[in-house]
Amino acid sequence: MPNFKDVISGIFNKASGGQSVLGVDVSSSSIKVVQLRKKGGRAVLETYGELALGPYAKMEAGQATNLPPEIISEGLKDVLKEAKVTTVNCGVAIPLSASLITVMELPKMDEKQLASVVPLEARKYIPVAIQDVMLDWNVIPNVGPDGEDSKKLEVLIVAIHKDTIGKYQEIVRQAGLQASFFEIEIFSTIRSSLDRGITPILLIDFGVSTTKLYVVEAGVVKNSHSINKGSQDITLAISSSMGIGTKEAEQIKRDVGINVKLENGELSNASFAVLEYIISDSKRVMLAYERKHQRPITKIVFAGGGSLLKGLGDFASERFNVEVKIADPFKKVETPAFLEAVLSEAGPEFAVAIGTALRKLEELG
């Protein structure tokens, strides 16, 4: 059984109000849940919880795992109990790694033509049989740099393998939950981390094993890219450089961060190299988008657990030379004032779960 000091459990008294809903985020390293209700038109936080999956795989907390659905379901039941979750009504986020998002260009055509053309064209981007995936698409408003409508259509394609949907359905079913929707994590993150705006923003989801990049314009995903490095690589680099365990390295990463020094006073070159690699690849994606669309990206927002690396904001701002912010998803919900600092710090890790819960609240009207 896991050590529950790795669990952050809710400490809120359940107040009277509207129906409670739950957002569920299952990643390779942890399960996060956020329970909300609506009161006076506002989303109110009732409880939240996080459970490290490492101990379930006989690994340290914080490490990425590859567990079977039945074990993940056990972990989900455990965190629901520890966080004192009271509702079974939920929405579930699915990792980008288990899905596909791409934008394709098509000649202008009407909706009827699109309905027949999109599934055929999507085959070029989807590496499995089209009948084996759940396919959705949406036309992106596409205006050129001169303000004129583009002569081509940009279509956002979203595909999730039916086996993946089945896996997550089984996980929540075994945990006693009732999910009304499954959505790819990026849409949850956008909902909780970004304000409404029309200018392009680069959203960097700094995860444990991967870093996901999304260019978001007017609330729409215009580009996506994955980097096969994440916060775990920095933790392991600190662990190796300093000869300490990963748990201690994780704490040093959060407490000292960018300025971590070795005994000889030099910066840990291995961890620095990981971060520089991620920043460099992010700049490449950013510049490619700006060249293609002739519009500058003037803001970068970091979300995900890797965003808790101390000093990341200032470090990234110097490298990108644009405004850099760390997401604060709990600002989208009403929370106890005395927990504001704690929740602000934990917020980037809960971006997906909060965003999923917010969508579930929207279903209630």
UniProtKB/TrEMBL annotation:
Protein name, per record: SHS2 domain-containing protein
CDD domains found in the cross-reference section: ASKHA_NBD_PilM
NCBIfam families registered for this protein in UniProt: pilM
Entries under InterPro entries matching the protein: ATPase_NBD, FtsA/MreB, PilM
Taxonomy, superkingdom: Bacteria
Gene3D superfamilies: 3.30.1490.300, 3.30.420.40
